[in-house]
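#lab-general

N.A. 3:47 PM
ok so I finally got the sequence cleaned up, no stray characters, all 317 residues accounted for. can someone with queue access submit it? mine expired

B.Y. 3:52 PM
send it over

N.A. 3:53 PM
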Amino acid sequence: MGTGTFAEPAFDRLLAAGHDVPCLVTQPGKEKQSKARGSTRQTGEGMEALAARHGVPVWRPGNINDPENVARLHAFGADLLVVAAYGQILKPEVLGAATLGGINLHASLLPRHRGAAPVAWAIISGDAETGVSVIRMTPALDAGEVIGVRKTPIGPDETAGALEARLALVAAELAVESVGNLASGTVCGILQDQSLVTRAPKLNKQMGDLDWEKDARFLARWVRAMQPWPTAYTTLHRQGQPPVRLLVVSAEALPSSGGAPGEILRPPADLAHLPVCCSDGVLALKVVQPAGKAAMTAEAFLRGRPWAPDDKMARGA
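B.Y. 4:20 PM
back already:
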């Protein structure tokens, strides 16, 4: 049961390991919708394409918890549900459709970052490391016993997209190992410490709007966490000209300058970056994308737009 690129390697590895997968359960229309919009969320082969290549039937129920869908799930007679970024909360009736219940591949070191966007929130939080946890599924969100875990450091410039791609490969190895341990009866689950729980809520487009009242180091992490979606952005205001929305593709934090949040400092002589003041420090915009145009370096952007002392960045249009 999975949707998207995080689930693909685990699905592929379980098939390659010789496990009998009677069905792929995936979200209806998500891949086709994302490709039609040119979304950066789905860039792999695609779960349905993988299933077709291996001759696995595909099922796209609108709500897996509906009684008729639960009945169909029971009819497979499955030993185990393997879930990765499926996108629906599974009720007890669904989990009871397999002899051993379900396991979930979660891209964090649980109980840290429970929720829909653990990779982004690990970067936002400034975590030095993250990983993948395999848990026995329960009705409570990401709250089951941990039966497998792998850790990995977070690179200083790593985006959420790049990190998730690495974690997907980690999850694939751990999925095969965990299923093997369950089959042999050698699994020992570890209860999660409730006092260490943090939340990783779903991202939305509005979260990309940069808040210049935050400090530069936080905003540099925020830019990385918003890649590839929803992408960080801000609005450039210039005297006598309409506001210009800029996607911020790449940025780094620099020491404090004493300017007001959103104030644009005089760009360096080499135009290597576009420096914007924060509550503490300066966020140097390195790659930006003006609305309706391709991404470009700060140098290319500034060369066509001479800097003026009253230029500023702000939230909203």
